[in-house]
Task: inverse folding
């Protein structure tokens, strides 16, 4: 039960607030003097404090100032019949959460306390989430200095404990899988598996088997029963990355799975129940795709229960330098040597548009670190490697497919070189499965 301290010199108001808040589910303590109220507030743990501004002896603003200076952590809401807007501004400057002018309606007080509780709950949830993400070994790229990313993390904290489907949108490289992993780690399924599949990276002929598994003899080469990724993610989370690339036929089957919680392996005659939280990610506008008939509208609404949009890096420049420092620190641990970005290099990365977003920034720093033995990277180091780090570099009209293939080929070659030819390590560096890497190497005719 949340504890509330009421500090007001009017006995009638103390009594009425006590009855009102007790009925609303709060444990209420009251003091009629500012000094006694301050000592009480510091001696006992209160979640919320309602304090009058004008009181004899120690007034409300002095109470608030003393409470904050001596380490008080409860949320303080000031009340007053005098001063209006000026009093409210003065209270906020001293650290008050909110200000209620007298006379007030009973429901106004309760609503203000509920909002304060919710704000504090979310603040603690986000702080805890950030701490867990910072401690997690695979928490690369989770930086939330900008208001946009803090809003995204706020949504992560809100949805983590629920099984609702979440649609994560944003340009390529903005960190959609990182956010999906954050949702998984912050929720009750953290001990279960996290399984991710890139729907654009698997040939359509193999995708159904990959998702739902197959029975022995279902097709040529199916010499034994095999579970799919839905079963592999049972009790955990399945991320369907690039969901906009899922063929229409499979979209209908996915919709049935989301509705019924059952899958059927290819070539099998029975359904199997699975307990999987599904997260979806896409760089496409699925609402536009649905209107154009390229994506099922009913599946779009089923996936879009909660939407988290990740803005491109160019729209959150406050995150660029912290991300660069984070990647340098992670590379320092991996390479076993001190590594940081010099002032000129940090200034340079902040000026770049990074059309490839967080992934492009990370690869630029890794490339610079791998190709030099210096402990402090400068601008020249970050400009090494491919002539343009952007996946759209060199693309002219009608040439996007060739440009994308060239960018993929360069990224794979760079990863293979950094991994000393070890394909499993290269796949990890690229953030894809080993099977996806083999498929892409075959398609791009890379040895």
Result:
């Amino acid at each position: 039960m949340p504890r509330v301290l009421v500090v007001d010199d009017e006995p009638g108001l103390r009594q009425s607030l006590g009855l009102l808040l007790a009925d609303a589910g709060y444990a209420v303590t009251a003091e009629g003097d500012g000094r006694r109220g301050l000592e009480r507030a510091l001696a006992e743990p209160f979640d919320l404090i309602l304090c009058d501004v004008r009181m004899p002896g120690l007034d409300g603003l002095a109470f608030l100032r003393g409470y904050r200076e001596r380490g008080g952590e409860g949320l303080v809401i000031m009340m007053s019949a005098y001063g209006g807007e000026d009093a409210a501004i003065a209270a906020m400057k001293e650290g008050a959460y909110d200000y209620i002018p007298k006379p007030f309606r009973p429901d106004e007080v309760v609503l203000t306390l509920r909002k304060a509780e919710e704000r504090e709950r979310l603040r603690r949830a986000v702080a805890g989430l950030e701490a867990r993400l910072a401690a997690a070994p695979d928490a690369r790229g989770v930086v939330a200095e900008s208001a946009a990313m803090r809003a995204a993390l706020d949504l992560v904290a809100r949805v983590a404990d629920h099984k609702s489907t979440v649609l994560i949108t944003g340009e390529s490289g903005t960190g959609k899988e990182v956010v999906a992993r954050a949702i998984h780690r912050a929720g009750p399924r953290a001990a279960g598996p996290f399984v991710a599949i890139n729907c654009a990276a698997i040939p359509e002929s193999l995708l159904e088997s990959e998702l739902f598994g197959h029975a022995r003899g279902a097709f040529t080469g199916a010499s034994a029963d095999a579970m799919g990724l839905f079963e592999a993610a049972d009790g955990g989370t399945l991320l369907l990355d690039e969901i906009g690339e899922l063929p229409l036929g499979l979209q209908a089957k996915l919709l049935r799975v989301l509705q019924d919680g059952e899958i059927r392996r290819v070539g099998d005659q029975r359904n199997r129940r699975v307990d999987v939280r599904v997260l979806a990610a896409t760089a496409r506008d699925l609402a536009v795709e649905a209107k154009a008939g390229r994506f099922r509208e009913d599946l779009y609404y089923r996936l879009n229960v909660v939407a988290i949009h990740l803005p491109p890096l160019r729209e959150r420049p406050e995150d660029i330098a912290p991300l660069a420092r984070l990647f340098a620190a992670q590379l320092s641990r991996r390479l076993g040597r001190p590594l940081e970005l010099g002032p000129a290099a940090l200034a340079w990365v902040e000026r770049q548009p990074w059309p490839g977003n967080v992934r492009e920034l990370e690869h630029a720093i890794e490339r610079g670190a791998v190709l030099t033995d210096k402990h402090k990277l400068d601008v020249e180091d970050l400009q090494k490697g491919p002539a343009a780090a952007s996946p759209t570099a060199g693309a002219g009209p009608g040439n996007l497919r060739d440009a994308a293939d060239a960018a993929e080929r360069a990224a794979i070659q760079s990863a293979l070189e950094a991994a000393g030819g070890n394909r499993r390590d290269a796949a990890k560096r690229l953030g894809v499965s080993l099977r996806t890497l083999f498929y892409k190497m075959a398609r791009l005719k890379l040895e």
Notes: Residues 135-141, 387-399 have pLDDT under 50 and may be disordered. The domain at 316-443 is CATH 1.10.8.60 (Helicase, Ruva Protein; domain 3). The longest strand covers residues 75-80. The two ends are 65 Å apart (CA to CA).
